[in-house]
Design a protein that fits this description.
mainly alpha, 20 helices, 79% helix, 0% strand
């Protein structure tokens, strides 16, 4: 899931500055929208205007124009960085919540409770957070294109919230049954009981996510990212106090970490809703309640299920490697090494995720505006941002001083065998980040266009048919352990990258602008 804030909520003047910078959706900053003109009401003059613009964009043969000028390219990269910067900070802040929670549980000194909290957190993400995050991919497509077309997006928010709430019911049932599955797989009964209690304590997060995720995506689709950053940072800071209060002061033990997590998510949603209401953006963000929210579900479901498949296939494949590491020789060191590598990987991956969201927004906005050339420019800018981000990530992971500093966060430096395994994994993480970062940004482009169905088929090939089998062969049969797992998993993102790139290069941008016009008309 994830899957995800300007000044503090207590600082109205700074908030107003953020609002003034972000609220004018159709401003001169957005140079990629070459054909976008706002009507006096703040919206385009209906889909007919979009149709004419799409036709104009299509007149160049559908390629979206010739080679963009350096100035236009620089403006596009600046716009994407303007969106991605706050998003990256917000994602890192949200990612830190689980790390803080587990650190407080770890200080209790009970290994069983720490194992239960860690396992419960992973299971809740795999069975709840990741699917909901994937289902929200439909909002990325529909809201960004509708926003670019100048159409209201409130009905999309309402439809998405209802859709996700409905899916929370079977997910909640899975939460209750997962501990029984763990017991059947041989996990100790004590750990299973602890995991069950932890999952039940985390259960409210599902329903909070069903509202918070569509709200965040609607804001991003309208190029508002400052408030999410501010709220994320505020919540991350207070989460330390919340964990201390629940775990230690109130004596809840390991369950206090789950309660603190729920509280922090409630606070995050409340602050964001409060900001939207105080800024007078309610009509623009969630709109007025409408019966139309109960219509258009077939279109929404088609995009949502394909997006969820893309996300789940990829995320579950990597999570499987963590589980399989428990069957390796020296399992404790193997699990520790791959867990540390996975956490470092996740933190540094946020830059790619943020640019993927920015790319989805920029491409979708441009297509909704009927600007094939703008969409093509946005896609090109996002694709070329990937290697730039990777160079920074590679430097952090391979430069000896920074590498040592990162490893010191997770070890005391006395287990040389563990340190050597971690160093070996970090070099593999560098390779993995190159391809996985590139495919993540490219998947953002695919989401902005609305090609999630093809993306899900590519992911089946990349992971279930190639990467996971190869990783298992290298890890077990070739006896390369966790290094074999990560080496094999590099194949998945590599296939994704080249397949996504081929898909994007074959796009007929003028035709995609026409398709966006029809999609927006059906969605709004």
């Amino acid at each position: 899931m994830a899957g995800e804030r300007g000044a503090s909520a207590s600082d109205p003047p700074t908030q107003q500055t953020s609002l003034d910078e972000e609220a004018p959706l159709l401003t001169s900053r957005s140079s990629g929208f070459s054909g976008l003109e706002a009507s006096p009401t703040g919206h385009n003059a209906g889909t007919g205007g979009v149709a004419s613009k799409a036709a104009a964009a299509d007149s160049d043969g559908g390629g979206g124009g010739g080679c963009p000028s350096p100035a236009a390219f620089a403006r596009e990269l600046t716009e994407q960085a303007h969106l991605a910067g706050p998003l990256a900070l917000n994602l890192i802040a949200n990612y830190s919540l689980n790390i803080v929670s587990l650190s407080f549980v770890g200080k209790l000194g009970d290994t069983s409770q720490l194992a239960a909290a860690a396992l419960g957190t992973s299971l809740s993400a795999m069975s709840g957070k990741i699917p909901l995050m994937g289902l929200c991919g439909a909002v990325d497509t529909l809201a960004s294109q509708a926003s670019g077309a100048g159409q209201p997006v409130g009905i999309i928010f309402q439809r998405a919230t209802l859709f996700l709430m409905l899916h929370c019911l079977p997910i909640a049932a899975a939460f209750v049954s997962l501990p029984a599955l763990l017991a059947a797989l041989g996990q100790p009964a004590e750990v299973c009981a602890l995991v069950r209690a932890y999952l039940l304590a985390l259960l409210p997060n599902l329903f909070i996510d069903a509202v918070a995720r569509p709200l965040n995506r609607i804001l991003v689709a309208q190029r508002m990212t400052q408030p999410q950053m501010a709220v994320g940072l505020v919540v991350a800071v207070q989460h330390v106090a919340a964990c201390w209060l629940c775990v230690h002061r109130l004596g809840m033990g390991y369950l206090g970490a789950a309660v603190a997590s729920v509280w922090s998510n409630v606070l995050s949603l409340a602050l964001l809703v409060g900001w939207v209401a105080a800024a007078g953006l309610g009509e623009r963000v969630w709109g007025r309640p409408s019966r139309e929210a109960f219509t258009g579900w077939r279109q929404f479901a088609g995009l949502a299920y394909a997006s969820a498949a893309m996300k789940c296939i990829e995320s579950w494949s990597f999570s499987l490697m963590n589980i399989l590491s428990g069957w390796l020789p020296n399992a404790a060191q193997s699990v520790a090494a791959i867990s540390v590598a996975f956490n470092l990987y996740g933190i540094l991956f946020m830059g790619f995720s943020a640019f993927a969201m920015a790319a989805s927004t920029r491409v979708g906005n441009s297509l909704g505006a009927g600007s094939a050339s703008g969409a093509r420019l946005a896609a090109l800018g996002a694709a070329l941002a990937a290697p730039v981000i990777w160079i920074f990530v590679a430097f952090v992971l391979t430069w000896p001083p920074s590498q040592a500093a990162l490893l010191s966060l997770f070890t005391n430096g006395t287990d040389e065998v563990l340190l050597q395994r971690m160093r070996s994994l970090l070099y593999l993480v560098v390779v993995l980040e190159l391809f996985d970062g590139a495919q993540t940004i490219l998947s953002g482009i695919i989401g902005g266009v609305g090609k999630q169905k093809r993306g899900s088929l590519i992911n089946v090939l990349a992971y279930w048919l190639c990467a996971v089998p190869v990783a298992c062969l290298l890890g077990f049969w070739a006896k390369q352990g966790v290094v074999g797992f990560y080496s094999g998993m590099c194949l998945g993102p590599a296939i994704q990258t080249f397949a996504y790139l081929a898909l994007i290069l074959r796009l007929h941008w003028g035709a995609e602008a026409d398709a966006a016009m029809q999609r927006v008309a059906a969605a709004t």
